[in-house]
Structure formats: structure tokens, C-alpha cells
What we know:
Helices cover 50% and strands 1% of the residues. By secondary structure, it is mainly α.
Amino acid sequence: MPQTEEGQHPGSGESGGATPRPGRLAALARWLDTEAGAPDPRAPAPRGTRRVDWLRVIPFAAMHLACLGVFFVGWHPAAVWTAVALYLVRMFAITGFYHRYFSHRSFKTSRPVQFLFAVLGASSTQRGPLWWAAHHRKHHRHADTELDVHSPRQHGFWWSHMGWITSAENFPTDMREVRDLARFPELRFLNRFDIVVPVLLATSLFLLGGWPFLIWGYFVSTVVLFHGTCLINSLAHQLGSRRYDTDDDSRNSMLLALITLGEGWHNNHHRYPGAARQGFFWWEVDLTYYGLKLLERLGLIRELRPVPARLLGHDR
Ligand SMILES: [Zn+2]
Ligand SMILES: [Zn+2]
């Protein structure tokens, strides 16, 4: 039985068709407007070219370089604690909202709270909620096959970790994958102008505490958060144990689960992507799930999808 046929939100088709090569101006404009210069923003890119869009990638590279600013602003406890807090809150937003809610619809919420979740997720600077969910749904459908855009088995560690992010073919959002989310204009707006929330966050930090807060609180925190998240695409398909014999290479790792607030139970997750929890057993620490349970108690979310009992008898 294919392991991803159940509990996963269905996508609706594979990529195809052609995408025009963006001119330099269009590439720059897309720093601000992800749909700039695209005749049909819904048209997916052709697969398999793995061409790096260097111009488009400059802000991403600059974010990494900006971390060197710590040598100028020095150690600043309040700024460092802000960085830690923003890492935790935004990792929770990525795992709880971008991943478990938008990508897998593993619980329900109201439209205003959904928007709030999208804003928090967008503050992580991992592009928009529709882009994130569209790529992730494809990952599950094609995990570790040649159609998986970030598979260490297919493309090696670095491409699966961050190379694929820089690739021209992976910039557009394939709206066919996320029709359920694209119904909401406020989500489409956040997805199109995915730089707005990060810029607001960075500006607020600068106004609040000057350069130390900007460097530590935004740049360092965001870059560490980015690589923490990416470890699930790279290492979580290489490091750890396999409880379930899935068709992909997904693995369970306590270390990765601690870094990512619960996403390290990746073999569990590939076995049953639709569950709100990824730590299937009490000893599999899944901080995101505990946070979601709290949000449920507060009445903000409801109908968390459980792990089917039949999957809990396979521990070894
Ligand atoms: Zn995976
Ligand atoms: Zn997933």
C-alpha cells in the first residue's frame, strides 16, 4: 500500500507547460512582487532544469551575509533573547501553521485566525503560505523520486537542503496544488507580496532596539530558523531510524525533533501526513503538537486529526 495515499491533502496534477525566462528587471521586481512580469502566475515552471536564479537569490544571500553584523554589534543579551524567542515562535508558526495547517489541513480554524497564522508563518521569511504548501504537497506525493524537488537521494545533501530554494523552477507557486487555499484573497495577497511581513518585522526590531535587535533578532534568528527548517528536507531523509517501511527515505530523529519543535518524527509523518501530531508516542517529543493542543483549549483551533490507532501497534 503506498504510504502517502491516506491522510494527505490531495494535490491536483503534475507540473507541465512552459515558463518564460524572466528578464533582469522582472527578476528584480520579483523581490517585491512574486508575480511581477509573469504573464500567467499560475503556470508552473518546467521540471528538471535546476537553474539557479542568481539575481533573484541576492536577498537570500544578503540575509546570510548580514549575520556577520554580530561582529560589529557584539554580544547583546536582550537582542539575543529576542532572537531565541523569535526562533521559537516562528518555528512553531512554520511547523504548526505552514506545515500542519496550510499544507496538510490537519485541523480547522476560523478565517481570521487562519489569516493570523499566515502572517506569523510569513514572518519566518520562507516565502508565502501557498508557495510553501504547494511545494510541500508535491514533496509528499513524489518523496525521494526524481519528481521530488528536494530529495537527498536524488540530488545530494546541499541541493535538498537549500539549493532547490535558489532554483528558477521553484520560485513560482503552482496554484493547482493549493486551490483550497487560493480561494482566500488575503492569503493570495500574502503569498504574492511575501516580503511585506518580513520587512515589517525587521523594521519594527530596528525601531525597537537599533542595530543589535535587527542583526540578532531578525537576521541571525531568521537564518538559523531557515536552516533548522531545511534540515527536515535534507537530514530527516538521511539521519535517524525508520519505524514504518515507507517508499521514501524519511526517518525519525529526536535531535531533529528538538531543533524543529517536533518535525523530526519525519518517518511517522510520511506514514500519516494528515495527523496534527508527528510524535506518535508519548516519548516522541513534539512541542508543536503541545502548542496546538493549547490553541485548541483556548478555542482558536478545533478538530485536530488524530493518528489512526492501527498505526500505533507497529513500534519497534
Ligand atoms: Zn519528507
Ligand atoms: Zn508534510
